[in-house]
Amino acid sequence: MIKVLSAEQINKWDLFTIKNEPISSIDLMERASEAFVKLFLANTKGKPKVDIICGPGNNGGDGFAIARLLIENGLKVNCNLIDFGLKLSEDCRKSYRRFLDISQVNIVKQANGLILNGDIIIDAMFGSGLNRPATGLAREVIQLVNQSKSKTIAVDMPSGLFADKVNLSGKIIEADWTITFQAPKLSFLIPESGFYVGEWSAVDIGLHAGFLEEESANYFLFEKSDIDCSLFDRNKFDHKGKNGRVLIVAGSLGKMGAAYLSAKAALKSGAGLLTVHIPRVGYVPMQTSLPEAMVSLDPEHDFVSKIDKVDEFDVVGIGPGLGMNPKTGEVLKQLFTSFNRPLVIDADALNLIALDKELLNLIPRGSVLTPHVGEFNRLFGKCDDGLERIEKVKLIAVEKQLVIVLKGAHTVVATPDGEIHFNSTGNSGMATAGCGDVLTGIISAFIARGIDSSTSARVGVCIHGWAGDIAENTVGKTALMASDLLCALPQAFCNVKDSDFI
Ligand SMILES: NC(=O)C1=CN([C@@H]2O[C@H](COP(=O)(O)OP(=O)(O)OC[C@H]3O[C@@H](n4cnc5c(N)ncnc54)[C@H](O)[C@@H]3O)[C@@H](O)[C@H]2O)[C@@H](O)CC1
Ligand SMILES: [K+]
């Protein structure tokens, strides 16, 4: 689990390493630049011509060291220093002088003095030390870089982006790839600011592990290697009743596919017994497409209106394709007051709660809500930006003792203990109908198997994204659809079991 630190904490980590390793700050800069260059060269074909843009701080110092290392590796490099009339930081000046020993620097006092004539731009103007939005000369330089057709690779952070807040005033480099040092910054994980980062990779620059052990964090990045594979152990003498009894309540006229997707995902995620409660319209398709599922039929033909005998289940997953009939809203109320184990609440179930917010107070503790941003806004109101939304999610999870899964590129899992985990798996091909229904099934199956709901949500989201990545490798992002996730789930679980190698 990676702790996502603030800019101030990162700076402290840097200083801690310098003092306790010990290592000089210029050698640490050299090590960071070597790590950047190694990854850059491993992903670069041929010998592209590189334009580098350096600023006055240590990010600029990295830029000069990177420029020198690239020349030593046989690349042609054009190096610009943006002159804001500021004194160079001590290490930037040292790195600049080392570069001058082997090549020249174009000093840029006005934007029209910037030279960009290569194939790739490396942005080392500002990093985590940005202390005000990029305006004036910085703004003009960034504008020229963003207009250029060259690929842009940011050193540590895109210039103009703050590390730990969403302040999008001023101009910001729109990077294609950001090679960041040691760990991702908070702003990479939030939709509005993450847009500027492009793809990102964190390179290990050997910052001191001792610092992390002591330092507390508000946010974490949950990785595949954080999944405890013993969660999925099966006992030789288990029978199906031991592996969890799941009830999925889903589907309405025209939306029966959602019920199928979540039900099948629950079975593929290890549920021992699965019952789907659906309106009559779905009886034949469900029984034919998913013979492993037991079907509980609603009295209504087109929508869910009534559920009996929920006590026999370990978990209820409710919402996919449910529709918005008021009688279905009554079912929610009945369920929340009669079932005292966790529920997984998704899609139209969330929209029905948004119409009658009193229902929020009836949801059993430890239940998992899985809204996307639209559903979240309907339930809890709009926020100014993604970071404010995450803080709100955290407060609600603690206050109502619920697990909230805010779905997005880096899905956020907020747990009743106040922790926030960002997910690290998945891809944009998964932004398509039905993928959320699959997630409901996965998390429901885990809870039914006795895994606590916070862990079920974190691990479920990670496995879901992992299946998405496997599916992307097979079918690509464009063709990816929710059924491909179902096909990829077995491989994702096998990977967890073999994950000693990760
Ligand atoms: N923390 C770490 O682990 C390491 C950090 N290193 C590098 O150091 C960077 C941080 O260095 P610094 O703290 O020196 O900060 P930066 O290099 O990010 O920028 C600070 C400089 O830019 C100026 N500045 C800030 N905002 C400005 C604006 N809007 N317009 C004009 N000038 C502006 C400041 O006055 C200062 O001179 C990291 O991003 C990384 O690239 C690496 O060298 C090595 C290890
Ligand atoms: K940068």
UniProtKB/TrEMBL annotation:
SUPFAM superfamilies: Ribokinase-like (SSF53613), YjeF N-terminal domain-like (SSF64153). It catalyses: (6R)-NADPHX = (6S)-NADPHX; (6S)-NADPHX + ADP = AMP + phosphate + NADPH + H(+); (6S)-NADHX + ADP = AMP + phosphate + NADH + H(+); (6R)-NADHX = (6S)-NADHX. (6S)-NADPHX binds at residues 58-62, 127-133, 156, 258, 321, 372, 437. The keyword NADP applies. This is Bifunctional NAD(P)H-hydrate repair enzyme. Keywords: ATP-binding, Isomerase, Lyase, Metal-binding, Multifunctional enzyme, NAD, NADP, Nucleotide-binding, Potassium. Pfam families: Carb_kinase, YjeF_N. Its cofactor is K(+); Mg(2+).
